[in-house]
Amino acid sequence: MTSVDLVVVGAGTAGLTAAAVAAADGLQVLVVEQLAPGGQIATVDKIRNFPGFPDGIGGYELGPLLQQQGADVGVDFLLDTVEGIDPSANGFVVRCAETTLEARAVILAMGSRRRALDVPGEADLEGRGVSHCASCDGHFFRGKTVVVAGGGDSAFDEAEVLAGIAKDVVIVHESAKPRAQRLTVERVSALPNVRILPEARIAAVGGTQEVEHIIVDGPGGRSEEPAAGLFVYVGLIPNSAIVAGLVETDDAGAIIADRDFQTAVPGLFVAGDLRSGARALLASAAGDGASAAAAAVRHIRQIASVGEVAA
């Protein structure tokens, strides 16, 4: 069994930041990730609101940079899937698909996954016109019309990417005003091939072998929007299943923590989108990671000093 000071579960912005901060403070840190470094940002074409990059940076670039920063201070990385975490006499046992780890503390940074609309036709046409990643799939819709569902930053950022590829982009969101940052909304709204439908919701996705049209319920009633693609950005679902029953969660499934980012289980911390009350901003995720790392360092040193006194 491999033993380290700290295991960080997840290599998104929060997890990679936490790992780098903890390792720089002298801990032996191992990051476990089942996919590529960066988490959800790996699919983002351009990030405009992360400090230090006034011209923006591709998410596929930022993820490896954060990973390299951790590697430079001694962080180790393991490509594996965490299946469960159990408290133990020495801290925690982290059960992975291919191995088992032991750590004195754990930071949960598994992030979240995209929420589906749960409307007729959506699941049937997933991967055949229904997508959650404009940067990945946008090129399939060059010269075609696409619909974007959602009114937050992700929806408007990805709509901007699609506007440079597709013939027309229709943004459908349920509120009177979008939730996205004002400058982003202004920039996207000014694009000549973007149309915004506020106070509207998608009722169904139409098509046989692929997306052909989107049924929209709006203030004026039901309408049919011809479209070859639907990109869905209507919120996130926290990836908290591996610690179900071990920690406290809110109604959405996000993990509840105290002001030191510690869960109800001593030594088990949480950072990023997975934390209840977290802001859905990349800079906030980095701040979460740094704060959780500092708390984990304090925890490990406290239990080490107690052990020395007892000895």
UniProtKB/TrEMBL annotation:
FAD/NAD(P)-binding domain location: 5-285
Keyword annotations of the record: Flavoprotein, Oxidoreductase
Gene Ontology MF annotations: oxidoreductase activity
Keyword rRNA-binding set for record: no
Record flagged with keyword Flavoprotein: yes
Identification of the protein by name: Thioredoxin reductase
The organism's taxonomic lineage, starting at the top: Bacteria, Pseudomonadati, Pseudomonadota, Alphaproteobacteria, Sphingomonadales
